[in-house]
């Protein structure tokens, strides 16, 4: 398969295949025909079914009306007995006195009430109420917490006007509440009070329903002009929640059911009250034979049409399945062509496509994006020493860690043998650095469950658009330039593109121009030497000065970093190192004899064939600086290509009296390798470790380990980048021998004699006058 000319999924077809749109139309037509065929028998059988259901419904309604009449009759019997009992109690000789508050009469009346409750299980409480309605007394020997009835003035007046034996029903209010029956207690000329009884409506109706046969129906009581009160409910039935219109349609209670209830209850004080019954429709009473025949005809017709539709659609479905299979195969092949099978990440082609797409989105919607390029350190050594199978495990583990670190919107790719790239949409340069550093930390961790369990070192470069680049190729080139700086400065680090330091690939003309500028600076010595003191932490006196270089204002370079980057790119780093050594050594001749001069030299300078230890020593002799006063610093940020050649050169210098220092220890993993391959007289701890150690126990433990190693070698330990009193106290507590940093002095002219009050510097920040004195290089007395 040639991926360049692979057709899109919509173009894939086979001979005789139906067009997808035509296939959908065929299916739609057949579906409409099936629906029409199903509706036709239903339209014919619906009237027949309606007649059968109407007849069944009418018979059920008649039966239910009879049941309602029986329930109402049973309720009438019970209520009539209760009414008579209340009338007899009200007419009792003790009733007027009991209503007036006589306790003896009340006890006598209570015994009559007990007999009433024994005969009427639905009577809850009986009260005597004074004629003014102010006092209501429960005649129950053990009164419950049920509140006494509260009557309005109008309701009280209507009840007091009742004739002996008459009962008035008070509207129960909320659905399901007890009924309240009122009757007047006869007195002299007017009623002496009221007798009130609360009736449990549910018990009354259940009792009546049991006497009427207790059928499978629900019972509700509808007060005059009110909503039905559900009293007895069967599962799945709620009469009170059904509108009257629905009840009428289903059971037709207006003529048979409700009329019978009204006639029975009206004479007992329940004027306008109705008993409402609701029963499920009896499906068993429907004639099933005609309905079954009709259903069989419908099913047969639908089944026939379905079979015919299947015969028509089968060939079309087979063609459609073939088309879908081809589309799936195409998608699988396309995905495989864009994926690295070893790591599960995208490949180089997928990276180029995604980068172009995201860069287009960046320009269209004015949002940032970042690119992270990663290169594994010493991957070739893993393959050569442990085998390609282990190398494959390493690459697979890198892919797994990357997938577990990036966001869902990010895309990761393996673009080469040990090269990886990550595209971060909607992410600026700071976000790209955060992700890349987090990924580096996870790769350096031990992973007991991983395919490759050892720490993995890598170098990375980050660039962002539109901050660093205006087009896709420029963005990629600048991320690559930042990656190259990471590898050049010692590896195991992530570097953000800096336009002043990082230089993408130059044309021949640009390289020649840059080379000429660096050569002009080196030959004309357009350089200024500055010196930073290295202070002994016991005596407070400088034991050495580190010589540094600043380009002259007319040199054309704004900073030392820009100058050395240009020399690196143009291939003039050795010439520049020679010139820098010459200027720094010449400016240090007035230094005291007991103070060392510390010089920085790139390891690549000593590895170069055109430079040797003799060339270095000749520079010292030319300016009258004894080799015994010189410390040669090798930075761990630089990559060592030929360790054996470098070791030979350093041994030649050591035999002449020069001391060797490992500079920037802790800035990357190259220094760890240097410490394991070369024994040093001085170990200088990088400022990143010193500034991170304050208050952080793990970093302090690393510093302690470095100090222990130096003690075994009898080497001097120097802490770089000391800028705060806290850092000074910390390194003194760790037993570090000496320190340098802005707290002790900035790079400047060499001061022959100076002593520092370390106790004062360790307890409080330096005063403004002290900083001014240091800026002016004025000697400071202890």
Strand content: 15-25%
Measured between the Cα atoms of the first and last residue, the distance is 82 Å
Helix content: 40-55%
What is the average of the pLDDT values? 77
Low-confidence stretches: 1-18, 237-261, 768-782
Radius of gyration: 52 Å
Structural class: alpha/beta
Query: Can you list the strand order of the major beta sheet?
Result: 14-15-16-17-18-19-20-21
| Tertiary shape | elongated
Q: What about the largest sheet?
A: 8 strands, mixed, barrel
Helical region count?
A: 25
Count all strands and give the number. Answer: 21
Oligomer: single chain
Describe the protein's architecture and organization.
Strand 10 (411-414) and strand 11 (419-425) form a beta hairpin. The chain contains 25 helices and 21 strands. The chain is elongated. The strands form 4 sheets. Strands 14-15-16-17-18-19-20-21 form an 8-stranded mixed beta barrel, surrounded by 6 helices. The model is unreliable at 1-18, 237-261 and 768-782 (pLDDT under 50). It starts with 19 loop residues before the first helix and ends in a 7-residue tail after the last helix. The longest helix has 71 residues, at 20-90. By secondary structure, the protein is of the alpha/beta class.
């Amino acid at each position: 398969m040639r991926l360049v000319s692979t057709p899109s999924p919509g173009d894939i077809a086979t001979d005789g295949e139906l067009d997808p749109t035509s296939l959908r139309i065929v299916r739609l037509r057949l579906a409409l025909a099936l629906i029409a065929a199903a509706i036709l028998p239903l339209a014919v059988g619906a009237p027949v079914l309606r007649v059968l259901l109407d007849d069944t419904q009418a018979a059920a309604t008649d039966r239910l009306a009879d049941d309602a009449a029986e329930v109402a009759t049973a309720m009438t019997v019970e209520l009539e007995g209760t009414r008579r009992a209340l009338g007899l109690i009200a007419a009792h000789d003790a009733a007027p006195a009991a209503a007036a508050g006589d306790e003896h009469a009340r006890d006598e009346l209570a015994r009559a009430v007990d007999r009433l409750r024994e005969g009427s299980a639905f009577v809850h409480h009986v009260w005597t109420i004074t004629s003014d309605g102010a006092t209501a007394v429960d005649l129950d020997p053990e009164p419950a917490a049920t509140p006494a009835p509260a009557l309005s003035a109008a309701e009280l007046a209507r009840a007091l006007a009742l004739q002996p034996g008459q009962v008035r029903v008070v509207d129960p209010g909320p659905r399901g509440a007890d009924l309240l029956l009122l009757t007047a207690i006869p007195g002299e000329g007017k009623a002496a009070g009221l007798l009130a009884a609360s009736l449990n409506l549910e018990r009354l109706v259940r009792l009546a329903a049991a006497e009427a046969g207790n059928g499978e129906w629900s019972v509700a009581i509808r007060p005059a002009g009110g909503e039905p009160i559900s009293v007895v409910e069967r599962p799945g039935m709620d009469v009170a929640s059904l509108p009257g219109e629905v009840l009428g349609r289903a059971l037709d209670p207006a003529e048979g059911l409700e009329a019978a209830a009204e006639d029975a209850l009206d004479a007992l004080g329940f004027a306008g009250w109705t008993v409402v019954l609701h029963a499920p429709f009896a499906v068993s009473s429907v004639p099933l034979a005609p309905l079954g025949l009709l259903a069989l005809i419908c099913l047969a017709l639908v089944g026939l049409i379905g079979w015919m539709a299947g015969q028509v659609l089968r060939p079309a479905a087979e063609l459609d399945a073939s088309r879908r299979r081809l589309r799936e195969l195409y998608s699988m092949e396309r995905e495989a062509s864009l994926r690295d099978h070893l790591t599960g990440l995208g490949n180089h082609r997928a990276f180029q496509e995604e980068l172009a797409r995201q860069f287009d989105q960046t320009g269209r919607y004015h949002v940032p994006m970042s690119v992270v390029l990663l290169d594994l350190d010493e991957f070739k050594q893993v393959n050569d020493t442990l085998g390609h199978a282990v190398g494959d495990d390493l690459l697979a583990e890198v892919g797994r860690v990357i997938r577990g670190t990036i966001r869902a919107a990010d895309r990761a790719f393996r673009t080469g043998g040990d090269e990886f790239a990550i595209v971060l949409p909607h992410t600026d340069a700071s976000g790209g650095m955060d992700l890349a550093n987090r990924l580096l930390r996870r790769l350096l961790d031990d992973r007991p469950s991983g395919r490759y369990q050892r720490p993995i070192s890598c170098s990375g470069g980050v660039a962002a658009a539109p901050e660093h680049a205006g087009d896709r190729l420029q963005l990629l080139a600048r991320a690559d330039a930042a990656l190259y700086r990471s590898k050049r400065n010692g590896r195991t680090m992530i570097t953000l593109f800096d336009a002043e330091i990082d230089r993408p690939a130059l044309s021949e003309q640009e390289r020649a121009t840059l080379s000429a500028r660096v050569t002009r600076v080196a030959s004309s010595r357009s350089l200024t030497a500055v010196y930073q003191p290295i202070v002994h932490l016991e005596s407070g006196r400088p034991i050495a000065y580190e010589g540094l270089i600043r380009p002259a204002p007319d040199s054309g370079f704004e900073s030392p970093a820009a100058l050395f980057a240009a020399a690196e790119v143009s291939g003039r780093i050795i010439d520049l190192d020679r010139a820098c050594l010459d200027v720094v050594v010449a400016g240090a001749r007035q230094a005291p004899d007991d103070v060392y001069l510390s010089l920085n030299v790139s390891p690549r300078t000593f590895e170069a064939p055109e430079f040797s230890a003799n060339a270095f020593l000749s520079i010292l002799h030319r300016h009258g600086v004894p080799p015994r006063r010189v410390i040669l610093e090798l930075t761990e940020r630089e990559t060592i290509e030929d360790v054996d050649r470098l070791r030979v050169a350093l041994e030649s210098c050591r035999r002449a009296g020069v001391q060797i220092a490992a500079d920037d220890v802790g800035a990357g993993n190259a220094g760890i390798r240097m410490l394991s391959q070369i024994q040093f007289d001085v170990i200088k701890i990088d400022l990143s470790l010193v500034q991170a150690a304050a208050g952080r126990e793990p970093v302090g433990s690393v510093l302690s380990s470095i100090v222990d190693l130096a003690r075994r070698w009898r080497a001097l330990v120097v802490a770089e980048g000391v800028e705060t009193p806290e850092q000074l106290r910390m390194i003194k507590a760790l037993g570090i021998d000496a320190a340098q940093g802005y707290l002790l002095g900035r790079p400047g002219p060499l001061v022959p004699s100076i002593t520092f009050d370390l106790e004062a510097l360790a307890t409080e920040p330096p005063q403004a006058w002290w900083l001014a004195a240091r800026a002016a290089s004025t000697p400071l007395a202890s």
